[in-house]
Fold this protein.
Amino acid sequence: MKKYKKKYFYSGLLFSIIIVIFLGCNLFKVGSYVDAENYYITLSNRELIEKIDLFKKNNPQYRYFSTDGKGNIYEPGGYTQDKLGEGKIVTKYPSDSATFFSCYFYFADFKASILCIVRLNHTNEKMTNFMLTAVLYDPNGSGGSFNNGDLSRKEEKRFKRKFETEILGNLGVVWKQ
């Protein structure tokens, strides 16, 4: 009888460990922008970024500007790369070591901007991951990230729909989620 109790104990323990691992995986997400709303675009990174730049040039109402500590106005975003000992470096110029391209779109009717990230994929030039990551409200910069509870479901749905119709729809790209 004792032998069977040990067997059930170890089976139960193993089963419990497996359940904890599966449930815990969602709590320990690894990587950058794990909660972002992902859109997969059938273009290369370079082609998508060129379309974004052209779209912003032709539709200046979607451009977002910020002010630095000295009062200088600039358009945030660019290519992000990690430099050992220097942290994250953001530049307007592409490089082979860049991992992300960030850009902002401004929605005047919402008095908010959205942060989008293009994950630079240096191996698959036929599919690019374009991520909707966060909302910033004017003028105080409050807001939140998508898909993690910072924004209400209604807010997320409103911004996603607007992004899909006004940005993705007008970029002229084929996309899927």
Observations:
- The two ends are 55 Å apart (CA to CA).
